[in-house]
Write a structure and sequence with these properties.
This protein has 314 residues and is an alpha/beta fold. It contains 15 helices and six strands. It has three domains: 137 residues, no CATH class; 123 residues, no CATH class; 38 residues. It is 55% helix and 12% strand.
Length: 314
């Protein structure tokens, strides 16, 4: 897991990305109060929780929320005693990293186990729970086929379908996980740029599985590079949308669907020496019929002054 790839795949992920996976957790089985998941932030793989020398003592994916820490493991073999002991080490990392009183929950997505809660007793007075989420009852072939059809017919693909696609190599399929990961990477590469831009976490999740399950170094590097190139194209596509919004904003003001681009365009335009006063911009936006509060936020002109402009027609 190179630092270069790590930074690229986790950069820019947010709360909605986290919950695309968290939503698969049957909270009632792990006694998690849904209120514990209310959060204003999510920190993917916090540095303090990743600085363990041996890869074997790190969870595959860690999410730090406001009130809890979720550690995810993706496993294709039965959970044996050594696995339980390894998960116990994960929980000990919390104390080492000084993460206060945030409880840690271990969630294992499994190819072979049934969905269940394992109560592992460390000793007679200490135990912790491991939630196992079974993937073996999913129809991976159907998931992949439906996505392929939607790509061919240019149909909308939602986030849940893409998460299932990323996890499909761990579902019951003929052949090896490595072979199906190659197929998944190929399918993801066929997605339209507009879909990819809103699906960065799916590429991140696929990369985690590639890094873990592809044993052949050359194949692992090849697939990682393909995923990395897709991430780069997403960034370029997002930047091009911003620039398009910037140009339209300088000429016509904000139109529906361009709020982010125009706000960025205004800031960039000023830095490039474009001579437009904030009040002139505000007047133009008033003519576009935008809400006063939004214009005020974009131009820093007070709502009271905007009301005067509107009433006076200037």
């Amino acid at each position: 897991m190179t630092t270069q790839h790590f930074d690229k795949f986790f950069k820019g992920l947010g709360i909605s990305d986290a919950f695309s996976l968290i939503n698969m957790i049957p909270l009632r089985m792990l006694d998690i109060d849904p209120k514990q998941l209310l959060t204003q932030m999510v920190n993917f793989n916090p540095t303090e929780l990743m600085e363990i020398d041996l890869k074997a003592y790190r969870a595959d994916l860690i999410m730090e929320l406001d009130h809890v820490i979720l550690m995810f493991e993706f496993q294709s073999t039965p959970i044996y005693l050594d696995d339980k002991r390894r998960f116990n080490i994960y929980t000990a990392i919390k104390d080492r990293a000084r993460f206060g009183d945030k409880p840690i929950y271990i969630i294992v997505f499994s190819t072979v186990e049934d969905t269940k809660v394992i109560d592992y007793k460390v000793n007679p007075v200490s135990s912790f729970k491991i939630l196992v989420i079974s993937l073996k009852d999913y129809n991976a072939g159907e998931i992949i086929n439906n996505i392929e059809i939607k790509i061919k017919n240019n149909q909308k693909i939602n986030q849940n379908e893409l998460i299932n696609l990323a996890l499909s190599p761990l579902m019951t399929l003929d052949g090896t996980i490595a072979q199906h990961l190659e197929k998944t990477v190929q399918t993801l590469s066929k997605l339209k740029k507009s879909i990819k831009e809103n699906s960065k976490f799916v590429f991140t999740l696929t990369w985690i599985l590639v890094d873990k399950f592809i044993e052949d170094g050359e194949t692992r590097q090849k697939l990682s590079n393909i995923l990395s190139d897709n991430m780069r194209l997403m960034e370029e596509f997002g930047q091009s949308k911003y620039e398009a919004g910037e140009q339209k904003g300088e000429k016509r003001g904000i139109k529906k669907g361009e709020k982010r681009g125009i706000k960025k365009g205004k800031n960039i335009g000023e830095k490039r020496g474009i001579v437009k006063t904030r009040q002139e911009i505000a007047v133009n936006l008033l003519k576009e019929g935008l809400p006063l509060e939004l214009i005020s936020q974009v131009t820093d002109v007070s709502v009271e002054r905007l009301e005067r402009f509107s009433n006076n027609g200037k």
